[in-house]
Amino acid sequence: MARPIDFGDARWYQRAVFYEISVRGFYDSNGDGTGDLRGLTEKLDYIEWLGVDCLWLLPFYESPLRDGGYDISDFFSVLPAYGDVKDAAQLIEEAHRRGIRVIADLVMNHTSDQHPWFQESRSSRDNPKADWYVWNDDDQRWSEARIIFVDTEPSNWTWDPQREQYYWHRFFHHQPDLNYANEEVRDAMLDVVRFWLDLGLDGYRLDAVPYLFERDGTNGENLPETHEYLQRVRATVDAEFPGRVLLAEANQWPSDVVQYFGDGDECHMCFHFPLMPRMFMSIRRAQRYPITEILAQTPDIPDGCQWGIFLRNHDELTLEMVTDEERDYMWSEYASDPLMRRNIGIARRLFPLLDNDRRIAELFHALLFSMPGSPVMYYGDEIGMGDNIYLGDRDGVRTPMQWTPDRNAGFSRADFAQLYLPTLMDPVYGYQAVNVEGETRNPSSFLHWLRRMLEIRREHPVFGIGTFEVLSAENPSVLAYLRRLEMEEGRESIVLCVSNLSRFAQPVELMLADLAGKVPVEMIGRVPFPSIGELPYFVTLPPYGFYWFTLHEEGSDE
Amino acid sequence: MIDANAIVSLLPDFLPRQRWYGAVDREVAGVEVDAFEVLREETPTLAWLLADVSFEDGSSATFQVPIGLRPLEQTERFLEGKGRSFLGDVDTDDGPALVYDALVDPELALALVRHIAPGEDVHRVRPLNVEQSNTSVVYDERLIMKLFRRVAEGPNPDVEMTEALASAGFGHISAPVAAWRRDGRDLAVVREFLDGGTVGWALALTSLRDVYDSRNDPSESGGNFAPEAGRLGRITAEMHLALAKAFGTSPGDPAAWADAMKSNLARSRARQLDGKAIRAKYEQLRKVKDSGVAMRIHGDYHLGQTMRTDRGWYVLDFEGEPAVPLSERRALSSPLRDVAGMLRSFHYAAQVALVERGEGADDAELRALGRRWEQHVSDAFCAEYFGTDGIDALVPQDEDDRQRVLDAFVLAKAVYEVGYELANRPDWVGIPLEAVTRILES
């Protein structure tokens, strides 16, 4: 049953669940060992069945693929292995027909060194694009800027023998930064933005936005010029393509990230990076403070804005936004094998990080779906896929989607040797044990559980746009909060979420006297609990257990 | 008319039943009315009583009891199961009345806080669990009133210290909103309630349960408490710096500290203690050349006096050791005495979590784990405490002297605990005794 898209709903992203997909790893329609846009289109029925609202596609543009497609060599064409622009248009159209929106990655900060713009720019010091990239005679300028990929890059400057100058790059040396001080570059990028929105795309996830501009005496992050330009992008989108969304990747502290919302005139959404590692810490320490502390430090955001929250994604579990002490701790806890460490993070998928413990996986998703923000899931996590830490860079978490227990996990008809990355074949996470077909057939699978939770979340807009209030609890292992939303006719939708972060059963007394007279009804089974009175409300939770309650007036049938 | 003497005659039976009586080993010899006033005439009636109690051993104390009275035939649900809080019956002009501790009566608990902090608009009451030397009630999850049970001449250190810390800019306390004083005596204080907080003790037990169950090393296991202890160490140092700023410091006097420790030891009637060896350890203080300063300190510093919130650690309850006379509690001492108190608390936590496991407590591996947890957490606490900028001006800079002073205070604290446990919780006396043995053998 298709849910038609309401294109008049300009704030759809505040209530949406996003699903991140690597086109390369999802489904191979032509048997060449690499996933493609047509393959993804063929799997839209599954995505519709799962019940997510919006796809986020990793870069599918022309690229030498030295950084998973984040090294774009032509913004206006599709990587041939994935298909062509027509395939992209068809994917968007078919997704819309099923009530699913589509956004895609856009890398504004840099291009591949294979991009014709860079080839021209490096060819001489006086060509028409000579100033489109950031060139300098020495490699000492802006030494305050940190190096992000510390594993592979010794400097943010690399010598180009052709032009005999250094060029600036915040990421890999094969990804030169565009020079946003140049008006032509700023205009050219707006044309890129227009091109795909014109095709029907519902928005962009803007990669690495804090680094667009550089300035002397600064670390080159979050500069006012960068915000000004993003506001210009937003104004263009609002004027020419209303209802499309800009989702910023700014891996910064919440107090800095909120700048990317502007006054509601910059990005619609930003990822909340520090929340995710702290959820892992909370579970390991069996106490809520790592989570509640970071939420308490998170400023309010302008009307019409929304956080993007996630458990894992295509990158490493990033630890840039935790303290050194916390980072050491996370490393020792979750990356005992040094191979699992990538740059400043941990390159693992969700289930291996949780020792394949389904109870924690359920608890984590219950938190993800009920905390303030729009959840962003990562393909394969819904079936509990694993990773391959022996693959280079972050490829270990980008292996083929596991559809069936058949050859190549049902991902491709190609020879195994031809696959872009090997399928997982280990006894715990391999495709013979973990795949969509098996989990679809098993009514008690994690996949079915997750789908049910998504269904419940969809029925209650309070999860997306309600207020959020952490409740006092003397028991540090219990995290309880209220979500509240004023509805029509003075009604209020109230959801109470109570979670046990410890591996032991826990009791908690919640001070709910303000809500005396209301009846908590558990949301999965619709079981009414004893009504709330003047005394502390007593709840017991099994290990890693959680409850979602809607609060009803006593005697009402709702 | 309510006859104060009739009520007072009920006290010899009532007082020893209260946790805050704090004198299990002392019999009441006599009770006299120190002050009595009816704060509210209408039913339920609220009266306020200070009673001077003399004990068989010649010591004395003044107790504060807010009194509630309701007609005997009125049965109220909130009184069910509260037998411990009943004083008994008295005759009034309106007939026989039940006399009880007013703080168990929500209506009277509200009346009392309105009396103390008339500017605050409060509606809902939640009594907290019983504490050692006072009683606390939470209002609207926003304010907390602490009523001192044993009152004394002069300012109550809890009020005095928090007011001073607040003006010295130390933010990790809940500053007083209103204080109730009469005739130079502090009776109660109303503060902001620390929302979302967990007492440090509960947090430490959460960590220990994980350690004991997983049997992983405390530094590696999920329940690693060291980072929290480190943050607590830093807050503790900042508290001392603020206290030094607020009250000033004077040169430390290790010989006097040794004398005080020895006289406390002499007062202890615990046969299990090896007085000679303990005194010898105290004597080490006389060799100390660099003693750090003497200053106002928390005085009863342990995990139960700390609270973890979303805004970091907070320090609570500056009353000092309840069993010690007020004059001594306000005396200057080394800040290392507070450090010693916290180190003792880490030991208690490790042991109590072990006892929780019942028969499993005899497991040698678990005992070793508990010891390692304590060491790991203590190291983290001390590293941050002594690493805080400015703390060198307050504590000995010489490593050996620092250790001598700290050891002496740890030992003195454990000796105090032995006495406290014998008087209040004899089953627990093994915990401080173990610590005493350990220090003497080191």
What are its keywords?
heterodimer; A: 558 residues; TIM Barrel; Oligo-1,6-glucosidase, domain 2; Immunoglobulin-like; 3 domains; 16 helices; B: 442 residues; alpha+beta; Phosphorylase Kinase, domain 1; Aminoglycoside 3'-phosphotransferase, Chain: A, domain 2; six-stranded antiparallel β-sheet; five-stranded antiparallel β-sheet; 13 helices
Describe the structure in your own words:
The complex is a heterodimer of chains A (558) and B (442). Chain A has three domains: 367 residues, Glycosidases (TIM Barrel), CATH 3.20.20.80; 68 residues, Oligo-1,6-glucosidase, Domain 2 (Oligo-1,6-glucosidase, domain 2, Alpha-Beta Complex); 90 residues, Immunoglobulin-like (Sandwich). In chain A, helix 6 runs parallel beside helix 7, helix 9 runs antiparallel to helix 10 and helix 13 packs parallel to helix 15. An eight-stranded parallel beta barrel of chain A has the order 1-2-5-9-10-11-12-15. A five-stranded antiparallel β-sheet of chain A has the order 16-17-18-22-20. In chain A, strands 6-8-7 form a three-stranded antiparallel β-sheet, with no helix packed on it. With 558 residues, chain A is an alpha/beta fold. In chain A, strand 10, helix 8 and strand 11 form a beta-alpha-beta unit. Chain B has 442 residues and is of the alpha+beta class. In chain B, strands 1, 2, 3, 4, 5 and 9 form a six-stranded antiparallel β-sheet that branches. Chain B has a five-stranded antiparallel β-sheet with strand order 6-7-8-11-10, with helices on both faces. In chain B, helix 7 packs antiparallel against helix 8, helix 7 runs parallel beside helix 12 and helix 12 packs antiparallel against helix 13. The mean pLDDT of chain B is 90. Chains A and B meet through helix 9, helix 10 and helix 11 of A and strand 12 and helix 5 of B.
